[in-house]
Hints:
Layout: E1 10-13, H1 17-27, E2 31-38, H2 44-47, E3 54-61, E4 64-70, E5 82-87, H3 90-101, E6 113-115, E7 121-126, H4 127-133, H5 138-149, H6 156-164
Parallel strand pairs: 1-4, 5-7
Antiparallel strand pairs: 2-3, 3-4, 6-7
Helix pairs in contact: 5-6
Amino acid sequence: MESTQKITPCLWFDDQAEEAAEFYTGIFRNSKILNISRYGEAGHEIHGKPAGTVMTVTFKLEGQAFTALNGGPSFKFNEAISFQVDCETQEEVDYYWEKLSEGGDEKAQQCGWLKDKYGVSWQIVPGVLLKMLNDPNSEKSQRTMEAMLRMKKIDIAELKRASGG
C-alpha cells in the first residue's frame, strides 16, 4: 500500500494543468500522472468551466505528489515559491536547466534559479554548491558566493576554480 503524503503542493494554472503535468513528468524520470478529474455542471456559475474540461491533475515527480488545478486567470506564479532540484553532477544540472528553462523567461535566470514556460520558479542546485558556501574557510566561501552571483546556470567547475583561489 502506498503511503499518503501529508502535504501536497497545489499549482494553480489558468487552463494548462494537464499540459504542465505532462511537461514535468516528461522531464523527471521517476514520475507519472496519477489522476485527472474534470469539471461537471455543478458550480458552473462559480468556476465558469465547461463540463468535461480538466479540473485537476494529480501527478508525482521523483516520489513527490503535486496537484495541478485549472483555476482560471486570477492568480499567477511568482518567485516567492520555488522548487529546488538537487543535482550531483554538472550533467544533471545541465539536463534539468535545459529542460525546465525551455520556453521560460530568460530574464528570470540567475544564481541557479529559472522560470519555466508556465512561470513556475525552479532552483537547479548542485550539492557541492552548498558545501562550498558553508566552507569553514570564509575566504573560500566568499569566492564561491561571488562566482555564483555572476552565473545564470551553475557551473560546478567554475565554482571549484573560484573557491580554490
